Q: What sequence folds into this?
């Protein structure tokens, strides 16, 4: 396949946004608590969510528009629902990723001050970097971060697996009712929340304006990013399995304690001599997630506002990035000592809203608003239907379990 590597970008941005809490927090916790027992959940989440994420790139390449434009074509009611859901979840999601980044920053820089202060500093720093709303900046920085993360994680898993002398079964486990809450949280952000498909379409739209990407090139770009997220999800589960499973040690809900446990997970496999490199890799991973989410949510809210409230042009990127930054800082004061709870809230919200985004994306790319030659194949449509059933069944099961 003749692919211009300079056109690679949005797929790696997807990876940068996805490889964060879902991998560093949820996958390692899954391995620590269940060993390889939840590998089925990781695999099925990636498999059944794949079409709906891919549709973001596919639609943008086919129509030179974002998924939000498509939602408006299907009916303004759908776009309003997206707007309301995003408004209700974006602060929690941003807070979750930022507080993990803050925990790692306190270790990296050796300044163990309040995580609230660290979170505010990181939020304001990202705000300053993104103030101009430039896609080009994100496109350049993310590639190096993903390479560093991938190499360091693979090395850690190989060494940890080689040093582990115990026999760890691959028996798959379906958690009982007391553990189902974690399963929902794990699958909610594995490999990422489905609303990232909207972000993907916006990033692809921006990239396409400069590089004129073909469908083949765009889907190759997305598949690279998606495979990286899946592969590293398995790697992080492996780290949790090889280093913590069966030891009786569990991850703390305290941000600073969790961050130290996470770093120890790497250094116990690679040795103390590479401690600083592991801290940098973990921090840059979460920093990239914090940066991309702080860019993407305002970018999406700006577009939704333009379509829904055209008479209010002041609801632009800068307005929404300020609102998100201030709202995120505000949330810190309420849940600053319960990072685990905060992450769980964010991931479960994503889990419950996944069927909505899956339905919208599938309906859009199979509608009259999508050129016939760009519509998904019969096989991909079949996988989409199975995925939609899977997401609905698990969401309904979760609601009944909680009630």
A:
């Amino acid at each position: 396949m003749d692919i211009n590597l300079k056109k690679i970008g949005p797929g790696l941005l997807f990876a940068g946004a996805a490889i964060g809490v879902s991998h560093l927090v949820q996958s390692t916790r899954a391995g620590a608590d269940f060993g390889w027992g939840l590998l089925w959940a990781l695999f099925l989440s990636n498999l059944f969510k794949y079409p709906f994420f891919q549709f973001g790139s596919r639609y943008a390449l086919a129509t030179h528009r974002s998924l939000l434009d498509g939602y408006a074509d299907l009916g303004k009611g759908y776009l309003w629902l997206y707007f309301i859901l995003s408004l209700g979840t974006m602060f929690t999601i941003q807070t979750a990723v930022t507080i993990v980044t803050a925990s790692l920053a306190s270790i990296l820089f050796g300044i163990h001050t309040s995580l609230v202060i660290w979170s505010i500093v990181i939020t304001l720093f990202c705000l300053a970097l993104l103030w101009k709303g430039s896609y080009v900046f994100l496109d350049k920085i993310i590639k190096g971060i993903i390479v560093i993360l991938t190499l360091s994680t693979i090395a850690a898993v190989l060494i940890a697996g080689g040093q582990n002398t115990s026999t760890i079964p691959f028996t798959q486990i379906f958690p009982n009712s007391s553990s189902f809450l974690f399963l929902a949280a794990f699958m909610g952000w594995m490999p990422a929340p489905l609303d990232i498909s909207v972000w993907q379409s916006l990033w692809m739209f921006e990239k396409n304006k400069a590089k004129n990407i073909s469908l083949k090139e765009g889907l190759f770009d997305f598949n690279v990013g998606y495979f990286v997220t899946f592969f590293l999800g398995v790697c992080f589960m492996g780290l949790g399995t090889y280093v913590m499973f069966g030891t009786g040690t569990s991850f703390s809900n305290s941000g600073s304690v969790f961050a130290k446990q996470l770093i120890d997970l790497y250094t116990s496999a690679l040795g103390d001599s590479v401690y600083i490199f592991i801290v940098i890799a973990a921090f840059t991973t979460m920093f990239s997630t914090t940066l991309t989410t702080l860019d993407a949510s305002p970018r999406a809210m700006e577009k939704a506002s333009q379509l829904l409230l055209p008479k209010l042009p002041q609801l632009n990127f800068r307005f929404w990035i300020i609102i998100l930054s201030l709202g995120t800082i505000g949330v810190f004061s309420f849940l600053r000592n319960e990072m685990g709870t905060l992450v769980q809230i964010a991931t479960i919200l994503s889990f419950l809203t996944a069927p909505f985004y899956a339905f919208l994306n599938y309906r859009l790319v199979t509608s009259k608003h999508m050129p016939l030659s760009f519509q998904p194949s019969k096989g991909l449509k079949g996988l989409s239907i199975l995925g939609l059933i899977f997401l609905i069944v698990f969401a309904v099961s979760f609601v009944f379990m909680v009630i």
About this structure: Residues 16 and 47 are 19 Å apart (CA to CA).
